[in-house]
Structures are given as structure tokens and as C-alpha cells.
Amino acid sequence: MPNKKPSKPKPRSQDFDVATGAGGETHQHVPHEGPHHADGHLSTNQGIRVSDNQNSLKSGSRGPALLEDFVLREKIFHFDHERIPERIVHARGSGAHGYFEVTRSLSDVSKANLFQKKGQKTPVFVRFSTVAGGAGSVDTPRDVRGFAVKFYTQEGNWDLVGNNIPVFFIQDAMKFPDLVHAVKMEADRAFPQAGSAHDTFWDFASLMPETTHMLMWAMSDRTIPRSLRMIEGFGVHTFKLVDAKGKVTFCKFHWKPRLGLQSTVWEEAVKLQSADNDYHRRDLWESIVNGNFPEWDLGVQLFDQAFADAQTYDVLDATKIVPEDDIPVRIVGRMVLDRNPDNFFAETEQVAFCPANIVPGIDFTDDPLLQGRLFSYLDTQKSRLGTANFHQLPINAPKCPYLNFQRDGQMQMNVPKGRANYEPNSLKEHGEIGGPRECPVTGFASTSDLGKNVSGDKLRVRAELFADHYSQARLFFLSQTENEQAHIASSFVFELSKVQLEGIPARMVANLRNVDEGLAKRVAAGIGIDLPAKAKAARRSVEMTPSDALSIQKNMKKTLEGRTVGVLVADGTDGAELKKLRAGIEAAGGAVKVVAPKVAKVALADGSTISADGQLAGTPSQLFDAIAVVISADGCAALLKESAAVQFVMDAYGHLKAVGSSDAAAPLLKKAGVEPGSGVTKLGNAFVEAAKSRYFEREPAVRTLA
Ligand code: HDE
């Protein structure tokens, strides 16, 4: 028998009673929390207490092992089956719990309960992910980031399964398997892992001009974020909001990070892969542990059919944005992530997002990409999680009651009572359980389309406006700063230089000539090919007005909040100087990590000792947003002989970060190639101020961009 009676999990402060808004759980079906969750006696899964967890049952002290040993057999059996298939895309992810709070009611356009009242809170679970790499791949390749949010609303679960880029590579679900096959590791050799810089991706992309707009975003710094806490999120598709009278308003969803947008530079992203495979996962986890809860504003762009009809693009085309200058983003809520998962597998791995999960007041549009997704996600969960009952897993179960006549299936956790597994039935009239009934008024009924004529000729075609693949790609490029444009050109050069099959880079550049001649020329020159003839465009482009909202650098926040300064010290460092620096950075909302040649017993000038947070050899400056070097003349002499110390400073400078230093550090800075200029300061207030920014104007001095 289990040593402890299984009991209902205790409510946690962060869990909401969705019915009342108060704390506490309202899961209708809470699986037993098994005895293995608690401290106590070890038992088998049948509840038999285990006397010895070190030795298998043998015949004699040296074996052979006995088949009878059910304790060993069960342990190994379960272990053998621990892994489940990883997601075909977005396999590597990191999750967190939190809540969504309404800051401005959306009741004027949507009847969705979660949007009605200012201050109203809804629990959420969020999973961020890379797309191409496997579950064990690194966190910082150049890749799109998934941004999937499950809202556990009072009316059922709503999943907003988005990305950190507002458009997508393709327009029709029919092409998704091709896209994914092309970008993932190549079929015969199983590399490269987690990156798009290879033959098959660019072969596909260059043959599919509809990818061009997304490629501009993918080659921008959006795909090498500094932190998951500093990315935007987008619902991508146009959705519908539906009010109580059935009136429809089109809607694009936006998540805007409170910490501002922040990216790394490419060389830094590459080096981060060796510095810390788990850079983003660790950053998310630690910020929550430290109480620095990541936060986003939820914004909506709202428009009607008349606006949609008047545009030069189709709002049902997922390769297009609606510029914020045309339809401003209305902020309606905020999301705070304040709790790490208790168990990665049970929550982050088993969470099953389905764009088809919507609630009354939110509706789909006919976007052909979205329509394909409505099928795919439900389907994939069955193969990943092995049963149609995956919705019963605690992380997937709604926090409001759910009742229907669906029954049985593998891993059925619920125990429905009575005979009522069909409807209509009259069992209630006979004193038995009759089961749930339809709710014509409050139930989901596709309220926006119901009764509308949706017939049409059967066709396999794309709508006419979908054929403009370049206008918005050009809009994006022209909206960037000069430095961001150079980053885009350089990314194309980097990626296409990895392509070995002849003709593919030229075909890509031929497409880019439709975006911007200057860009195409720079990319051609960068990879060393002649400028190819311009690709034929299926439809004439229209010139759109550049939009500042599309640039990261034009929207960066000058702040130390959520940022970390790496402080390099050595024996002989002035403790008072270090203390003052730490106080200044912390007062500005930043964090400090001390790096030293040895982690324990760093001897300060006054004879006292401190411990460092990281050892120099394993803590390169990629891990920080700015660096300070606080050393004595002796310390400097010692560090001059350490290539890791020189590299620490050189990389921070090369990655356009603020570099502050005590006077005695001058020889080290010189050896690292640091030149005077913006972002290079003495310690003190000047450094604290400088550490709030990156110095893109320094870039021409440290590398040649395309
Ligand atoms: Fe996905 N996508 N997708 N996708 N997607 C999956 O579902 C799919 C698309 C996105 O953290 C899969 O549970 C099709 C756009 C995220 O668990 C799968 C099409 C956007 C995640 C699937 C798309 C996304 C997925 C794989 C084209 C941005 C991770 C595992 C019609 C709006 C969710 C899974 C998580 C995951 C299919 C296109 C975002 C196979 C068929 C566009 C964030 O069902």
C-alpha cells in the first residue's frame, strides 16, 4: 500500500479559481498525485514497498539475475519507455506558468469572457521554442522562436500559438511538410542540426518566392534574440473577434516585451552556442527564480472588412503584415510569467497546443495556412502523446468543467459514472445520470459565419493578391536602420556561402533583386557571384511606406532591467570599487556576475576574499550584456597572460557592448584591441549609463559587413 493516502493537490497561490478569480484549483479531473511525489517510503508502481534500491535479485552474490525480480523489471521497463516522440518542429522548448490580466476591456468587440473586465486574470502556460533543431539542440541558432500561450479561461482553453515573427514562410498548409523537410537536418546525413544555412533549405526557399518576406525577417536580428524575455510574439494569422451580437472585427494579436526588444550580434550568437547550450532556457528559469518575472503587453490590431478590402495585400495571407502605422496596436492586457514548471516532461514536454482551441468571442478566418493548422496540431498530439485522451493531462486539461459523451481510449484517466454515454437520452427521467446538454446560447457556434453562404467552385488555386511576394519584403528592408540592413545582407551572405550546390545562391539573389537592388548587389558581392538576372515577379510590387515599428534598433529600450553585467576581477582587485560598481548597477535594475580566474577565494586588495560567480575559462563575455574590468596593476599583469581574459574583453567590445574599466586595466584593454569611443568608459555613473545600450556605431571598426 502507498505509505500516504493520495490526496488532491493543494491549491497554489499562483493557481486561480477561474470561476471566482480566487486562488485554488478547479480542475474537474485531477489525477492522483502518486506516492512517488512525496517524501516517504519508496514503492513500486503497484504500491509495494521496496527494501533495496541498490541491488538486483540474484542467484548468489555474483548472479545470474533472477527474472522474478519485479522491482528491477518494473524500474527498467519504465525507464526504457521514458522518451516520447519529439515534436516534428519546435522540438526544443522552454515553458513557464503565469497569468494574463486585462488592462483595457475588449468587450466592445469580443464577447470572450477573458477579455471583459479590467483587472480580470486568467492563468496561462507559455512555451517558447526554436523551430528546426531537435529537443537536445542549442538555444541560440539563427531560427524563428515559437511563442505559444495556453489561456485556461473560464470558458475553456484558448491557445494562441504564435511566433516571434509576424509572417510565415508559406501561404498554404499544403507546403508545410516540404518547408519543414527542407529546413531540418538533411535526410541522408542528419546535419546540420538546428540551422537553415544548408543546401536543402535554400534550394526550397529560392524556388518559393512566397518565402521572401519571411526570409527578410529570418535573416534579421529577430532570429538571434538576446533573451526569450526580449522577443515579441505574434498570432501571425488574421483572426476574428466576435461581439455578443455576432458582429465581427478582424484582429491581429501582438505580444510586446516590457524589457524591450533586444538581439545579439551574429558572431555573439555563434559563440553563445559553445558558451551555454541552454542560454535562453537558463535565462528564463533564473529570471523567474530571482523574481524578475518576464512580462509582455498583449496588443490587438482591429480592423473591418472595408479596411481589408482596401489593402493592396490580402489579410488572409500569412506572408503579410498589417502595418502598425495603418492600424495601431491597442494594448489590452499584460502577461506575467511567475512560476517555473515543477516538472519539465509533465508540463513543457506534454503541453499540447492546438490553434483550434478557441473560445466564444474569438474565431478563425479562412487563411489557408491557419485552416491547415486546425487539423495538424490535434493530429500531431495523438502521435506525440499516444492517446486521444491527451487533454486529460494536467497541463492540458481545462480549468473549467468539461463534460461530454466521449469515452474510453488509451490511458483514460476519468471514471465516468452511469450508463449515459449517448445523447439524446432520457435516463435522468428515470433517476439516473443523464449527462450534459447543449448550450445553444453560450456555446461556441462559429457565430461569425453561421448562416452565411460559404459555397464556391472547387479549386486548387491561390487568391490573386497572394501573388505579390515582394512589396512587404521591401517594406521590411527599408524600415530597418542602416546597421540592421547590413546585418540582413551579411546573414544572407553567411547562409548562402554555406550552400554547396551551384545555382542556388544565384537563384536567391535573383529573387532579392525584386526586394532591393542594393541588397541583391551586396549579397552577390559578399558571396562572390555575378549579379544574376532579376527573377520574374508574378505580380507587380507596390511601394509601401516604411514603418519604424519593424525595426529592433529603433525600438530598443535603454535600460539595465533584465540585463546582466559581467565584472572581471582578479587577485588584488579593490573591493570598495567593486562594491560601488555593484551598487550602481543594481540600483539601475541590472544584475552583476563576478568572473575571476578561480571561483573561490579571490583575494581583494584589503586582504579579504570573495567568491566569483563564474570561472574565467568557462564564463566568456557572450553571457553578459556589458562588462566591467575591475583589476589592480598586478591583476592586470596576471590577466595579460590569460587568453580567456583578453578574449573576454575583445569579444565584449566586438559584440558592441559597453566596456567599463578601472585605470589599471588599460594594458588589458589595449591588448584586446579596445579603442576609445562610445560605450568605452571609466567605472562609475558613466559606465552604469553606458551599460544600458549596445553600440552599433562601433561595428564598422570591428567587422566588415556586407
Ligand atoms: Fe506550427 N506546428 N504549423 N506553426 N507551431 C507545430 O504541433 C503546423 C505554423 C507553432 O510549443 C506542431 O504540437 C502546420 C505557423 C508553434 O508546443 C505541428 C503549419 C506558426 C509550435 C505544427 C504550421 C506556427 C508549433 C508540431 C502550416 C506561427 C510549437 C508539434 C499550416 C503562427 C508549439 C505540435 C509548442 C508546432 C504544424 C505553421 C507556430 C506539426 C501544419 C504559421 C509555436 O502540428
Automatic annotation (TrEMBL):
E.C. designation(s): 1.11.1.6
Show the coiled coil region(s).
none
- Bias regions of kind Basic and acidic residues — which residues? 26-40
Q: GO MF terms on file? A: catalase activity; heme binding; metal ion binding
User: For heme, which residues are the binding ones?
Assistant: 87, 127, 176, 373, 377, 384
Look up keyword Iron and say if it applies.
Answer: yes
According to its UniProt record, what is one Pfam family this protein matches? Catalase-rel
Compositionally biased spans, kind Polar residues: 42-59
What is the designated name of this protein?
Catalase
Q: Which organism is it from?
A: Panacagrimonas perspica
